[in-house]
Each structure stands twice: as structure tokens, then as C-alpha cells.
Amino acid sequence: MGYDIERFVGYVNEGLLCSICRDVLEDPLQAPCEHAFCTACIHGWLVHHSNCPEDRQVIDVSLLRPLYRYMKNDLNRLQLHCRNREYGCEMICSLESIDRHERECEYSQIPCSNAGCTVQIERRNLDGHLAVCEYRSRECPNGCGFTILSAEDTQHNCVAELRTELELLRSEMICRVEEAKHEMESRLDSQRRHMVQKESILQNEIEELKSQMSRMMSDVRSLMAAERQHRQELEQAELEKREL
Fold it and tell me: Are 95 and 3 within 8 A, CB to CB?
């Protein structure tokens, strides 16, 4: 839908009106036949039709193009009233800057920022409303430290709230202790498995060393026996030499 033509100051050229909604073009597109439309209007039209609503020439979404620059400039220079005119805003802006003004307009109706409040209030009156809103929150004046809504003042009980908070903290602490306990047990099990594995490796290494030592002792005994035999052979040879 386009901009309501009643909002505009002065004459609006017929060529700047949407051929479908007959309001001033908003986010305009142009067909090859040079008829212009609001983007939302022409897209909605082409869902059920395949031609221009003005001259019935065949058109497709892919054939739509932005408005000619000179027409776009004419459109942007149009002057119109703020949409909050009925609430008291007297601002008149160019079409090019109207969106920026309306986003910041003091007469805009905006929702209260307090959760649960459904009041729509003018932006300029928001601070005053927040000061008295029944859904506003504040810290308990009795010193318990809780944030309460004004609507809950009569039901707020510091002792009950603190007892509930204490129970929650106790439950949370128990959960954390259990988690720490499980984590510690898991770590101990992991370390225990690691130590058992290391012990097994060391035991295997010890057995291997024993086996090597046994082989070495056997080799030493063999060498000693060979040495005795060699000595005996030398002695025998010496005796034979003396006899000769």
C-alpha cells in the first residue's frame, strides 16, 4: 500500500500515484509499459494475474525495474504531514525524510517497556508513565534486596522470599557438591587405571630385565667354563713342551 494522498501538501502528479491502490507510490517499481506501482501492490497483483492492471500488457516480476531517476526525485521532494498529526505533531517533511522523522517523532505511540504492561503511550510521555506504571520494578524498601513489581507490593513477604532463596541456594550447593564429587571420583578412577597400567608395564619391564640377567649369567658361566678349558689346554700344552 502507498502513502495516503490526503497527507500530502499541494498537488501530486498523477504519474506518482500507484496504478493499483491509487495512493502515492511507496517503494516503487515500474513495468516496461511505464506504469508504476508500490512494490507490495504489484507483487500481490501478480500472484493472481500476469498482466499490467492499467493496459493489460503481459508482465512478469522479472521485468519490473526501479522508477526512473527524475520520477524518483520528484517523489522524494513531495511534502507530507507526519502520520502522528492526529496526536498533535505538526511536522511536515519531504517524503525522503519522513521515515526518519516518524521513527523519532515524540508523538509516536510506543508500548510501555515494562514486562506485562500493554499500555501504548506517546514517546514524549513515556518517562512519566514509567514513573507510575503498575508493572514497574524496584528494589524492596525493607532491605531484602529483591526486585518487586509495584503490583506485587501487598503480596511481597521478605522472610518468605529469603527462605525460598535460601532453599534454592542450598539445592544449588548440593548439586554442585555432587557434581564435584562425581568429577573427583572420575578423576581418581582415571588415575587408578593409569597407575594399574603403569604397574603392569613396569612389571613386564622387570620380568624382561630378569630374563636378560638370566641370559647374561648363563653367558658368563659359559665364558668361565671356556676359560677353564682353555687354561687346561694351555697347561697341557706347556707340559708337552717341557717333555719335548
Answer: yes
H or E, element range at 147: strand 147-149
The full length of the chain comes to 244
What is the residue-wise DSSP string for 167-181?
HHHHHHHHHHHHHHH
Sign of CA dihedral 168, 169, 174, 177: positive
Q: pLDDT tens-digit profile of 125-143?
A: 888 888 888 777 666 656 5
Map out the domains of the chain with their CATH numbers.
Answer: 3-102 (3.30.40.10), 107-147 (3.30.40.10)
One-letter-per-residue 3-state SS of 7-69: HECCCCCHHHECCCCCCECCCEEECCCCCEEEHHHHHHHHHHCCECCCCCCECCHHHCEECCH
pLDDT digits (tens, 9 = 90+) for 153-169: 556 566 676 777 788 88
- Angstrom distance (rounded) from CA 94 to CA 75: 9
Residues with Cβ within 8 Å of 154's Cβ and at least 6 positions away in sequence, in order, are none
